[in-house]
Amino acid sequence: MTYLGIDLGTSGLRALLIGADGAPIGSAEAHYTVATPHPGWSEQDPGHWILALDQAIETLRATHPEFADLRGIGVAGHMHGATLLDSEGAVIRPCILWNDTRSHAEAAHLDAVPRVRELSGNIVFPGFTAPKLAWVVTHEPENFARMAQVLLPAAFLNRYLTGEGVTDMSDAAGTSWLDVGAREWSAELLKVGGMSAAQMPRLVEGCAPAGVLRADLARRWGLGSDVVVAGGAGDNAAAACGIGALEEGQGFVSLGTSGVILAARDGYRPAPETAIHTFCHAVPARWYQMAVMLSATDCLNWLSRVTGAKPAELTSPLGETLAAPGALRFLPYLSGERTPHNDAAMRGGFAGIATSTDRDDMTRAVLEGVAFGLRDGFEGLRATGCAFDQVTAIGGGTGSRYWLKLIATVLNTPLALPKGGEFGAAMGAARLGQIASGGGSVEDVIRPPEIAEVIEPVADLVAAYDDSYHAFRAAYAPMRQAQLGV
């Protein structure tokens, strides 16, 4: 028996096939683009997701005969996206993505409504789904009038696979329509947002069956008629399942395009005033809390574009020995910020540039700025009661040992590096598909990976970086005021 995990990312789709023992068999990828028709807008054609999925499946079928033994499928997707469908199931307009900030005014309005934070457990961020629909009401009323159902990206793929709109609790928690503590759509939140329960997909737990693979797809893919599709998960909950973060004290830091620090929780303890996200986990009776910075490796990618040097060419001259904090400061708010500022309009910048500043200085400052941004989120999680002996580090940014030592020192917490293998969102999605189809229990299937190495904080530099972090924090308000012209 085999199981398929589908990770619907912002820039591409990845399909991972695993065996009954959880070991990877093979994977395939297909890519697509993001449209930015106006500043702050970020959209995608959902039809491209279907084309990418079909391409990835055909690659897996052609290269791995084990695909024919498929028993379960799980989908993970980038959260918060608004995909509007009409009564015939046709897509009305491009999906408004998680990093789209056009609805910042609508988000502020919804966030100020009494009981919205209390019920949803979160600030209403501009990237969430509810303010996007409020924007559509105002700016595209003809599209809102046509809409019969709104689906998150993963739920859109679930509909393609099963014929029914169905989503899991972890993904739904990022809409501002879910009562996150009760794990159900909130009639009050829907009313505030001008929505109805009839426009929502059916809710299931991420590891529960959402349906079976459509008969026509099963025939086209050479499969039987009993392939189970799981509820699936939002991408971060799926990554937590892939890394085995289910219990209190387990968590990870992800150095991807955005930066994430996630902590599994054994109960519901919302703290929206910290700008920490409190979401349902992809398995029953568990939640997770998460701090999100919008630009992590994206800051290094930006410097790469400006200098014409690849990211590895920027970081390799720094070596592996952590230096003391530099005089040059970088604020990493290239696309605004979520945790802790909830500020879509803020932009980043350097402070302290001198005639002696060189490319290495700028690189160090960018790495430090991202590490300090992660520290902001880490402090917010600590304020909710999270405690870590160590956190697992994942994502593309972990390729820089200098950056890993820097982050461990700034957080004053060891970073655990998994032994080579699969442990991301695609693996988590495959595990959910395995559980939903009867291939094992949550505890048996969702296990932490073997740790290859632990990066310890550089003890002699912890105090210096602590001082530098507090200077970084103090720089936010003056730069924000300067941008406002006050």
Task: Write a structural description.
It is built from 17 helices and 24 strands. A hairpin with a 4-residue loop joins strand 2 and strand 3 (24-31). Helices cover 36% and strands 21% of the residues. The mean pLDDT is 95. Pfam families: FGGY_C, FGGY_N. It is an enzyme of class 2 (transferase). GO terms for molecular function: ATP binding; D-xylulokinase activity. Substrate binds at residues 79-80.
Strand-helix topology:
Layout lengths: L1 E7 L3 E8 L4 E8 L11 E2 L1 H18 L6 E8 L5 E3 L9 E2 L7 H8 L4 H5 L8 H11 L1 H6 L2 E3 L1 H10 L3 E3 H4 L5 E2 L4 E2 L1 H6 L9 E3 L4 E4 L2 H6 L7 E3 L2 E2 H9 L7 E5 L3 E7 L11 E4 L6 E7 L3 H11 L3 H5 L13 E3 L17 E3 L7 H25 L7 E4 L6 H11 L3 E4 L6 H12 L5 H4 L5 E5 L6 H23 L2
Parallel strand pairs: 1-5, 5-14, 5-15, 9-12, 16-22, 22-23
Antiparallel strand pairs: 1-2, 2-3, 4-7, 6-8, 10-11, 13-14, 16-17, 17-19, 18-19, 20-21, 23-24
Helix pairs in contact: 2-4, 10-15, 11-13, 13-14
Keywords: ATP-binding, Carbohydrate metabolism, Kinase, Nucleotide-binding, Transferase, Xylose metabolism
Family: Belongs to the FGGY kinase family.
Catalytic activity: D-xylulose + ATP = D-xylulose 5-phosphate + ADP + H(+)
